[in-house]
């Protein structure tokens, strides 16, 4: 994919997301349900590589590591992320010149020293330039498990998810501008969408940022009212961090069926009116409404001028503390489901009310 605009850091997409948990046996069963397969283990550390398609999840159980301390503070969570770059050392030193804080990741004998800078919530953001099969960081630092020695077999299909589509940060109120400027200064990200969503009781503000390569998207969210979903996340997570990870598939209907068969809890479907209005919102969209409704899949995009640009999406319930996953299919649409935001936001508000985390005053009877 050609760069959308100037790409001074040589960005080439997401490489991996790193996870940790304060107790064992939390991450692995979840990743199995999500369709991932454990294909390699680190040569000297208690670290595993889980993969589905071209999506890499790193599970880090190494004692007294940065991931270990992150999980002690935040609970089971995404404790780091990695960008692919053309030249890791060039990108790293450029980031330092622009004010990034370095993070030292210890490496053992004959292991790669991965350059990293301090990112959201103190989590490391790694810069990786070895990602081709046969030459990747996994070929050097990991041992592939039996059955995955052949590079051609190292990309299990799983539930059909192929790429990390985007990765969302929740930040404290007033900090969204700081992080937008941080990504812009270091990586030349651009803001492509701005949202100011008001639900019935709370609000949310979001800036959707994209990298010059068009492959890395990071929406930034902050609370727009009080007591809302972002505030609840920050309290439960004990700070800023990765709120959700969106995984992309070419067939969301089949992928959702596989998720449901595996027992992954998904957000409940919108009401009947949402689906009845789809043809009015998106005339001639051509999607099987009954099948979307049966699974709770949301539809957004545009059909103006006879040109279909559609996005299908669904969200899991929180699976790692307050952290959840999104599952998405793009049909020529590069948005984030803007048309669904208010309906989704209000459904999350109702869930907060049901769980008792959002207190609302009872309606007062009207005088006769």
From TrEMBL:
One of its GO terms (molecular function) is 4-hydroxyphenylpyruvate dioxygenase activity. It is an enzyme of class 1 (oxidoreductase). InterPro entries: 4OHPhenylPyrv_dOase, 4OHPhenylPyrv_dOase_C, 4OHPhenylPyrv_dOase_N, Glyas_Bleomycin-R_OHBP_Dase, Glyas_Fos-R_dOase_dom, VOC_core. Keywords: Dioxygenase, Iron, Metal-binding, Oxidoreductase, Pyruvate, Repeat. GO terms for biological process: L-tyrosine catabolic process. Pfam families: Glyoxalase (PF00903), Glyoxalase_5 (PF14696). Its EC number is 1.13.11.27. It comes from the Bacteria. This is 4-hydroxyphenylpyruvate dioxygenase. Its cofactor is Fe cation. Belongs to the 4HPPD family. NCBIfam families: 4HPPD. Fe cation binds at residues 166, 244, 326. It comes from Tepidimonas alkaliphilus.
């Amino acid at each position: 994919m050609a760069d959308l605009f100037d790409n001074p850091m040589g960005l080439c997409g997401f490489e991996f997301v790193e996870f940790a948990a304060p107790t064992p046996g939390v991450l692995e069963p979840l990743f199995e349900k999500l369709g991932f397969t454990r294909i390699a283990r680190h040569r000297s550390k208690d670290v595993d590589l889980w993969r589905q398609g071209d999506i890499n999840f790193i599970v880090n159980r190494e004692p007294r590591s940065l991931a270990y301390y992150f999980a002690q503070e935040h609970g089971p969570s995404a404790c780091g992320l990695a960008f692919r770059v053309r030249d890791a050392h060039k990108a790293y030193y450029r980031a330092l010149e622009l004010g990034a804080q370095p993070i030292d990741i210890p490496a053992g004998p004959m292991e790669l020293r991965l350059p990293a800078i301090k990112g959201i919530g103190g989590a490391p953001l790694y810069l990786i330039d070895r990602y081709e099969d046969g030459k990747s960081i996994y070929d050097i630092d990991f041992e592939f498990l039996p059955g995955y020695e052949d590079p051609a077999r190292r990309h299990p299909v799983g539930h059909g998810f192929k790429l990390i589509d985007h990765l969302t940060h929740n930040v404290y109120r007033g900090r969204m501008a700081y992080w937008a400027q941080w990504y812009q200064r270091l990586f030349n990200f651009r803001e492509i969408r701005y949202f100011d969503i008001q639900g019935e009781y709370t609000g949310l503000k979001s800036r959707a940022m994209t990298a010059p390569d068009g492959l890395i998207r990071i929406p930034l969210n902050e609370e727009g009212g009080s007591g809302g979903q972002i505030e609840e996340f920050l309290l439960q997570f004990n700070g800023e961090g990765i709120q959700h990870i969106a995984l992309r598939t070419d067939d969301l209907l089949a992928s959702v069926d596989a998720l449901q068969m595996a027992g992954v809890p998904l957000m409940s479907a919108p009401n009947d009116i949402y689906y009845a209005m789809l043809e009015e919102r998106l005339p001639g969209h051509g999607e099987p409404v009954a099948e979307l409704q049966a699974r709770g899949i949301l539809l957004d995009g545009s059909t103006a001028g006879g040109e279909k640009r559609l996005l299908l999406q669904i969200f899991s319930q929180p699976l790692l503390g307050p952290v959840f996953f999104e599952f998405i299919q793009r049909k020529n649409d590069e948005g984030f489901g803007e048309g669904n935001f208010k309906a989704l936001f209000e459904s999350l508000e109702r869930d907060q009310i049901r769980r008792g985390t959002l207190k609302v005053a009872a309606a007062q009877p009207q005088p006769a």
